[in-house]
Fold these 4 entries.
Entry 1:
Amino acid sequence: MEDVSRETMATKTKKLGDLGEKIAEKYLKNKGYKILEKNFRYKNYGEIDIIAQKNKRKLLIFLKPKHLTFVEVKTRKISGNSSYRPEDNITYFKKKQLIKLSKIYLSQNKKFLNIPYQIDVIAIEILQEIIESAHNQRIELRHIEQAITDFK
């Protein structure tokens, strides 16, 4: 019986994470980012949720690559008056994992080697009822740029 409830909890957590990633992707596109890849995985090192690139205008016609952004999306349901935030789930281990994965991605995609990069966090809080229904959406989104800066 416990295994069934764990499966249900894992399914709910995955749905919540997928919804958060969709919200983050839409937000980034609206901010002028081009989504290059989603859910980048390498062996057992984990996953980078979104890899995006923002361009800046050089003259009127040409776009010059500005930087590459690796995005970790953290989503949670709002329940009561908790001071706990989604970004509080970014542990020391997760930071090291994201740094390692970003370096692996860059080594596999040499065209980005000379472009500056950063690791951002998008924290999303969703009113619990939204998960079952898209009505009356109440979402709080925080884009924390350069959230992880220790690349040594």
Note: The first strand starts at residue 33 and ends at 41.
Entry 2:
Amino acid sequence: MAKEVVWQNKDVTSKVMAEHFKEKSLKVYGIDVPRIVQVLPTNLPEISANELRIDNLFLLEDGTLAIIDYESEYAEGDKVKYLQYLARVLDRCQREGILKVRVRMIVIYTADVREEQVQTVYDVGAAKVEIQPAFLSRLDSKEISERLKRKLEAGERLTGEELMEFIILPLTYAGTEAKKKAVMETIDLAQKIQEVDVQRFVLSGIVVFADKIIDSITGEEVVKRIMMTKVEMILQEKMQEKLDKAYAERMKDVNEMMAEAEKQKAEAEKQKAEAEKQKAEAEKQRAEADQQKAELDKRMADAKREKDRSIMAFVQDKQEDGAPKETVMMKLMRYFGLSRNEAESYYERA
């Protein structure tokens, strides 16, 4: 009954997993393989038998397929099941026209399995299977849990590696009851994730990864919380639409104000340009007036020098003729309009 309830809700989690597993790495589990680029369907139908479902099927960056299975105990007979997985995957590839494909069989063992128990090669002569094991017993459950809690309480975002640790965390505990308790604690911790889509990914990962030890009540609780976060996302989207509309209207007003301001600025620039033009014209006229004044001053200076030469020549001529000083003085004042002092000065200088 537990499995039926959980698998009925796989459609709820599968899309979330497919969206968020891209670009994730399995190295945090101790598996050195390329990054995931695509999550593939895990139901592998057989021609004349019931459906066989594997835990995860990923397409990796190097083009290989990675079948992932989770085991809480080691049994040599499980490798027969892995052979079936491989056969079904290869059969699907052939049906899709993919004739050359390389497949990795990855088995992630929970903390209940010791490394020395596991034999990685299953050789029956005609067929040989080699698994890539990952042992979650190597992970420090307490350290991971406390680190995730600290970061979430501080409002910090989790890295891709930390998200992968998050969803596998319940399986790092040994014993069924410890795992079930860890599932609920991990679910509660996931509620502290602020990004709704990331929270859905973590909750979905818990459902998928802990499926073999999760009970119906816990499974339904997780799925219910996933659906609640989906509703929250819809409400947030609607609220965002209202905010976007209000923002658009506000920006329209702002743009109109800016357009008017630009218009006023352009008018001010036009007036400034006109003022600069008038100023330039005034400066030109002033320069022309200064030039005319300079030319007039030059002519006046030339005229003064010519007058001085004429007066001096007149005085010298009279002096040479022996004319009396007073007669010369009187003629200077009468002919040239000089004052007596000016006439006296010219006479003395001559």
Note: Strands lie at 36-39, 43-44, 52-53, 56-60, 65-71, 103-109, 121-123, 128-135.
Entry 3:
Amino acid sequence: MLRSAFPSRRRVRAILRVALLSSDVVALFLATVAASLIRFHRVFHINASPVLPISFNMIDLSFVMVGVWLIALWMEGLYDLSRVFWGTGEYSRVIRALSVGVIGVIIIEYALRAVAVSRAWTLLGWAFGCVFVIAGRALVRAGMAAQRRRGRLLRPTLIVGYNAEAVDILSAFRRNPGSGLMPVAFLANSNSEKLHFSQAQEAGIPCWGSAREIRSVLDEHYADTVLLVSSAFDHDVLARIIAELRDRDIDIQLSSGLFDVTTSRILIREQAGIPLITIRSVSFAPWKRAVKRTFDLVVGALIVLVGTPLWLAFALAIKIDSRGPVFYRQERVGRAGAPFGMFKFRSMYQDADERLAGLQASGANEATGPLFKMEDDPRVTRMGKWLRKYSIDEFPQLINVLLGNMSLVGPRPPLPSETALYTDSHWRRMEVIPGMTGLWQVSGRSRLTFEEMVRLDLFYIENWSVSFDIGLLLRTIPAVLFARGAY
């Protein structure tokens, strides 16, 4: 592997830092300008000192505020690239840093007693700053992910250890090239397994040797990240590998094996000199269910009210396109196996259910497990293909949300014929109320296999929170608009 084929680790880090710093500076300055426009109706507002015979322009104070906020962001570790891209945890740290910055400025103001800063301006600047900085960092993350999907700014990664967990890790990186880690090779667990691995080539990437040879391998080949598969080795072997790499300018990452747990639930604490991984429990407390239900009712009702004219237009188009009712009510399975009738706009011909058995017998099914999917299903009407492409046929499920059969976010509600083939692990996805959208919707929809869908649903259940629901709803919008994975 040639070093020239990839940018250096330092260059990638420098690009990220510059992008983050530039985004934060622009976001914070715009926040203070927006605060001035709302509070004073102009940007260049002159403010007089209550003590000294001087005046100052609010734009000058903006530069001071931006400088203080940048220091607070730096002290919070938001330019430490080993910690910066931690999802929602990053956003809470942004809010905390900007809050500390505002408090610092207020304390300085009261200590000097020479400057009177509008409290409304300060509060508006803080609020806009939180929103703009978070939005800017989200754009930086999206831009980096887009560059990496195009094969740029990738980190050549050597996976040390080969087992089922290693295969899952490789599959995850291949599905998400935006992560930036590009596996270039494996190291087998031992010399005895190296020959078997080299012959089998099960993973589709080369084997550069065994874990015992890691130093010589890195001398010969280029990788700037080493990922150790923890379940492939005993503790003493992992400790030896880490010790051998301590003098290398290389990132060492250790897999946790916790594929179904988000980092927001994981804490690393030292107890008696031993680093322990603490996993917070998932709370399904009644008050949280009440908050989720209230959120479903308020947002669901608003969408119904705003979208009523569109509903009428879609209903007319369906009636004109083919004979039959506008709505289709299908039996689905809800929480704890309770059946309910799910509403959809009719997207198929009236005899669709009768034709299903013939299609199944002909081997036309393109899905895996108990699901039935066809990209060019002959039962779908012309209007139905368009409705399905943009998930418009699912809008009437808002009726189910208001009735309490479904939630805005949750696992996909299965058919009774599907649940008849479920295993005990599959039934775990029915522990919560099914939803109109979910991780399966924003992660591929019809392109997903059944087992991948189950894994995503279990991940959602294990990591459920109201903020997680809001995030998934926001991610659903581009997934639907761009019709990703829909048919």
Note: The chain has three domains: 3-149, 155-257, 286-481.
Entry 4:
Amino acid sequence: METKKSIQVSFVILWIMMIIALIYGLTGFIKPELLVARSFQLYTGQSYSTYLAESPKLANYLLILERMATGLGMVVALGAIIVLLTSFKKGPKWAWFYILICGILGWGNTLFANITLNNPLLITVNIIGIVLVLIGLIIPVKDFFGKS
């Protein structure tokens, strides 16, 4: 069975989105201080390194929470990648919905967090992720839902 062109284009867009999600997740999981330091300073007006020196246990707790959050984001992205690679091109409706739910919940969760933290760089990354999910899912919508 040949994959429709719209699903192939969608697959590439969603693959790019998944790579961005994995890079974001890996960054926060391996080096959480990169994400925490910027957001911390934007949110509190204090330097994270100063806070780390003054209150190391609480500062490290923030790193643990960031690592857990981005680890969960990586799990969501990896689950979506598995569906993308194994089922999405075949066109089952459940795969479309799975990617929609993973994409919107994953990117939406971090978007709201970064809006709260007032981090424009990560807000932009999150908006790009959501836009890629929506474009990637709107393009093949007829192929997934056009036939009864």
Note: The chain has one domain: 5-141.
